[in-house]
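Form P-L/3: holo structure prediction, ligand nicotinamide-adenine-dinucleotide.
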Amino acid sequence: MVDYMLLDGKMLSNKIKNELKAEFAKLDPKPKLVVILVGDDPASKLYIQSKQKACEEVGVISETILLDSTITEEQLVLEIERLNNDPTVHGILVQLPLPKHLNETLIINTISDKKDVDGFHIYNKGRLINNLETIVPATPLGVLTLLKEYNIEIKGKHAVVIGCSNIVGRPMAALLLNHDATVTICHRYTENLKQYTLMADIIVCAVGKPNLITADMVKEGAVIIDVGINRLGKKVVGDVDFENVKDKASAITPVPGGVGPMTIAMLLSNLLKCYQNQ
Ligand code: NAD
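OUTPUT (holo model):
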């Protein structure tokens, strides 16, 4: 059993938000983020509210555009193009998922790559894959920032990323590779997940299944990053069996209070980057 370090994303995100607030205060005109929500998915509404609250905290203008779920692709494209051409708008975010009749890839790639606060535009993703300076998706960037804050070595370490979605797993793996880790990517079709996790110096789990990672799957002294958010009644838990895994880990994120708050802070940090790029 080793003493573990709790990777406190809440504390770090507050520190970053305070720094950003000071930076934003120097800017004229004020940075503006526009969030588009199509339809009225309750979870998406909650996410948007927390983004708006964070914008208010740091002195950023935020506008939410609520669009009916029946909107056509053409209408949505026109709306995004209007925002692309509006010089008072510095960041545009389309809340995902979109209703089924809208082509998500087409919509995301309509956002100007310079206003792409989420870093989901194909151009920005391509730059990430090529290890070039870019806007990095907020959740993986939050994980990286947390690792750096706690001086966790990445170079030469074996990082196992579980989950390969476009918004978390894939950019996470690319970012770790760009920081010289040896990266293994696991997903729903990986056979014998445990054989990979047992070899990991760093585990990043982004799946959405409570207790997917148990103590017997973790090497002594590993660093555990739990991206998962699962609602069990009123309780929110991650993908990792925290209570049992923590005693084997050298460092571990809690859920809530780990990666979640970092995501919002990185979104604001991406907005600053977009502002500076314009
Ligand atoms: P997703 O559903 O798009 O992807 C899930 C991934 O998990 C897929 O790549 C799939 O192959 C893999 N997977 C499924 N079952 C598996 C299994 N048994 N073993 C190994 N891999 C398996 O989800 P996502 O959008 O990437 O989100 C993943 C989780 O992270 C969710 O719980 C989500 O709520 C959470 N999340 C958290 C934040 C944050 O800020 N903390 C941000 C985004 C997503």
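COMMENT: Residues 137-260 form a domain with the Rossmann fold fold (CATH 3.40.50.720).
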